[in-house]
Amino acid sequence: MFGERIATVAELEPYEVHGSRHVRVVLAFPDQSFEQAQLGAESVPDGLRPGDPVIVRTAMNVVVALERVAN
Predict the structure, then answer these.
(1) What percent of the chain has pLDDT above 70?
(2) Other residues' Cβ atoms within 10 Å of the Cβ of residue 9
(3) pTM
(4) Within its chain, how far is the Cα of 11 from the centroid?
């Protein structure tokens, strides 16, 4: 089960674990719900900031990647 939804980045916090880069992100959805995800840095576009709209890619209802919304 794969899916995608549009959301806005509410919070973004990069961190490292044993030299591997990760990002904790809080996503705000249009239905007023929020979701937190912890992703490897390779799954988050470079330069992403709070307020940026993103496409949230999911597998079995778990966030697996973020993608910038094309203008």
Answers:
(1) 99
(2) 20
(3) 0.92
(4) 9
Let me know how long the chain is: 71
Report the percent of the chain where pLDDT is more than 90: 97
Q: CA 46, 50, 52 angle in degrees (round to 5)? A: 70
Longest Cα–Cα distance in the chain: 37
User: What per-residue string of b and e applies to 51-66 under the rule 16 or more CB within 10 Å gives b?
Assistant: eeebebbbeeeebebb
Domains in the chain, number: 1
30, amino acid identity: P
**Burial class of residue 71, CB neighbours in 10 A (0-12, 13-18, 19+):** exposed
Domain CATH number, residue 38: 2.40.50.590
pLDDT digits (tens, 9 = 90+) for 2-48: 999 999 999 999 999 999 999 999 999 999 999 999 999 999 999 99
